[in-house]
Amino acid sequence: MSVKVVKFGGSSLADANQIKKAAAIIRADESRKYAVVSAPGKRFSDDIKVTDMFYACYDAAKKGEDFSDIFAKIKERYNGIIKDLGLTLNLDREFAIIEGCLLGNAGRDYAASRGEYLNAVIIAEYLGFDFVDAADVVVFSESGEFMLDKTISLISQRLENSNCAVIPGFYGMREGGTIKTFSRGGSDVTGSLVARAVNAEIYENWTDVSGFLIADPRIVCNAEVIETITYTELRELAYMGAGVLHEDAIFPVRTAGIPINIRNTNEPEAKGTMIVAETDEESRNIITGIAGKKGFCAINIEKDMMNSEVGFGMKVLDVLREFNISFEHLPSGIDTMSIILSSSCIEGREEDILNRIRKAVNPDKLEIEHGLALLAVVGRGMRSTRGTAARTFAALAHARVNVKMIDQGSSELNIIIGVMEEDFEKATSAIYDCFVN
Ligand code: ASP
């Protein structure tokens, strides 16, 4: 029988009501055998996530301060959930152990991990599933490096003996015996690992939106949902700031060809977004999505006869290496070269960097231009369609947006466009309207 792995995020499990919705989704399909869960998230916009409450306990404990108030609030949240789910479970012993470990200065990751741990214990009880502790099956080396193969084999061995299980997301154990977490939002990664380990037919990632949107809804209201997206397209969009899924969640399932389906716990009938390795399905609008970010700058370099000076580019890039800076794009003319960088990585050392470039290549002109935004127009459909670039730039021209930079990757999967920050929203809407509306 086919197996589906489901992962529910913090907002999908923020209180008993949300947990009931998640449970109904799990029970509606008996192939949903393994559930990975986050810690309870926010119930309303200025609520505090349980993970953040645990971090606060850790910070206080470390300074030798009293954290009993925050800890009491954590207990209250879990006890409220237990009561509202109608369970008789008593977590007092668990709470005492955790409090003792926090007082004994257990690590920051240990503190953070207890959010998913306790939630998983409760949800397993509610569903009547086994509880499988991630500390027993997700492993990191002593120095903290994640161990993929070992983890996959431990999860699959453990789940062979379990017909249905709930596994806390976000953390695992170092070989030395201490808890380590992935970065924030890391339960997505755990879900992906479990899906790979049991060779799932699909990895359903349940959250509070009905999938990836074609453009940021804060810029384009009522932006449509992307129905199908390839892993490669998603990488491009995610890099440019389209959130929803943790970046590292793609790799474990990608190699095994397991699709990820982003779904909405509050709207279970919506099909969400399907993330797949390959697809023949044309995207409806030629482009799959638009994403972008502000906060970039360009180092512009001019020098006569630059194009015949062998090693020019290498010398410039070597300066960046010296400063440990990675660059985004490198558009060039005959005697000009620009390096597009994230502004944050040169902050406070601009003069030093310029001086080093001056020394290395003796340019005729050298300047930094601030306040750039980058936009990625991504779509597998662009490869085979003529006129995508023409339509994109016509739309920008009509919207009176000045284009500062253009870069098309060799895969022809994306066009990256640099505009001034103040034009960013206008540019995004113009491209969206041109292709989607
Ligand atoms: N609870 C963790 C966080 O808030 C991990 C997760 O939800 O995926 O980042």
Can you put this structure into words, describing what you see?
- There is one protein chain.
- The chain has helices at residues 16-27, 50-62, 68-84, 92-103, 108-127, 134-137, 148-160, 187-197, 231-239, 250-256, 312-322, 350-361, 388-398, 424-435, and strands spanning 4-8, 32-37, 130-131, 139-140, 165-168, 171-174, 179-181, 202-207, 228-230, 260-264, 273-276, 289-302, 336-342, 365-378, 403-408, 414-420.
- The chain has 437 residues and is α/β, with parallel strands linked by helices.
- It has 2 domains: 4-208, 3-Layer(aba) Sandwich (Carbamate kinase); 289-435, VC0802-like, CATH 3.30.2130.10.
- It has an 8-stranded mixed β-sheet with strand order 3-5-2-1-8-10-11-9, sandwiched between helices. A 5-stranded antiparallel β-sheet has the order 13-12-14-16-15.
- Helix 2 runs antiparallel to helix 3, helix 7 packs across helix 8 (187-197) and helix 11 (312-322) runs antiparallel to helix 12.
- The longest helix is centred in the first third of the chain and has 20 residues, at 108-127.
- The structure holds aspartic acid (ASP).
- The site of aspartic acid (ASP) has 15 residues, from helix 5 and helix 8.
